[in-house]
């Protein structure tokens, strides 16, 4: 599975879990619920997904650094 897809699905999953936990804890205001979930999941993703983020960065760097074919 491509690292970009793994990282993206992991971020969405962490956000969904955070949203569910905060809702179960009684946070009912939708705007506050989404904002808090976004903030908490962002911090959690930064800590928990460092290996996936490095893999995505390496893949993008390799694609950028690859020489382009010449059209001579």
Ordered list of secondary-structure elements with their pairings:
Elements (H helix, E strand, L loop, with lengths): L2 H22 L5 H19 L1 H16 L7
Helix pairs in contact: 1-2, 1-3
Task: Give keywords.
72 residues, mainly alpha, elongated, transmembrane helix, membrane, DUF4229 domain-containing protein
Task: Give a verbal description of the structure.
The chain is an all-alpha fold. The chain has one domain (3-63). It is 79% helix and 0% strand. The chain has three helices and no strands. The protein has helices at residues 3-24, 30-48, 50-65. Helix 1 (3-24) packs across helix 2 (30-48) and helix 1 (3-24) runs antiparallel to helix 3 (50-65). It is elongated and about 60 Å long. It starts with a helix and ends in a 7-residue tail after the last helix. The model has no long low-confidence stretch (mean pLDDT 91).
